[in-house]
Amino acid sequence: GTLEGAAAMTSPGIRTAAIELLDARAAEGTLDGFKFDADICRQAFDYYDKDRSGYLDVQELMKLAEVLWDTFYPNGPKIDQPTKIYMVKEIMAGSDKNNDSRITFPEFLPWYRRMAEKHWRATHRRESPPAPKVKLAAPTPKLPVPPANTGAAVQFKCVLTNETYYGIPCKCSALG
User: Fold this and answer.
1) EF-hand domain spans which residues (predicted)?
2) Which CATH number fits domain 31-124: 3.10.180.10, 1.10.300.10, 1.10.238.10, 3.30.300.180?
3) Which of 8, 55, 134, 148 has a CA-to-CA distance to 48 between 20 and 30 Å?
4) What does DSSP assign to residue 105?
C-alpha cells in the first residue's frame, strides 16, 4: 500500500502520452502576458491542505493531481490511480526539498509557479509572423493558335493531360 510500491506496479500508458502532448503544447506556447500571483498560490495550497497542518501529504497531493489532470486535460480521459500516483511522485520529486514526504508552502510555491507557467504556455500560442508579401509577376497565358483550316472556334481542355484542343474534344474530355 505505499506510494512507491503502487507506482512500481504501474505502466506508463496513458500518462506518458498525455504528459508528452502537454510538454509539446507548452513548448509551442509563450509566456507573453503571464502574471504569477503568489496569493492565488497560497489559496490553492490552503485549499488542498484539508487538515490545516501547514503541509500537503500524499493523500492531499492525490486530490491535487486529480484536479491538475482535469485542468490540463479537460476533454481527455479521466485520471486513473496509477497516473495519480505517478503525478504525486513527480510533485514530490520536484518539491519536497527536505525529503520528509510532505510539502510545505515554501516548497509548493516554485512547483506551482512552474505548473502555472506550463499551463499558460500550453494555452497561449506564439503568434506566427506574417508571411512576407511577395508580388509574383503572373505570366500572360499564351493559348496555342488553332490549326489552320479547321474552322474551330471552340476549345476544349483534356482533363487528363491538360492539353488544349480546338474543334473536336479529345476522348478524355467526356470524363470530366
Assistant:
1) 36-71
2) 1.10.238.10
3) 8
4) H
Instruction: Give the type of residue at 129.
Output: P
- Locate 57 and state its grid cell: 501529504
φ, ψ dihedrals at 104, nearest 5°: -85, 170
Direct distance between the N- and C-terminal alpha carbons of the chain, in angstroms, rounded to an integer: 70
Number of helices followed by number of strands (H, E) in the chain: 6, 4
| Angle of helix 13-28 versus helix 81-95 axis, rounded to 10 | 50
Q: Is the pLDDT of residue 16 over 60?
A: no
pTM of the model: 0.58
Domain ranges of the chain: 31-124
pLDDT tens, residue by residue, 145-164: 655 555 545 565 665 666 66
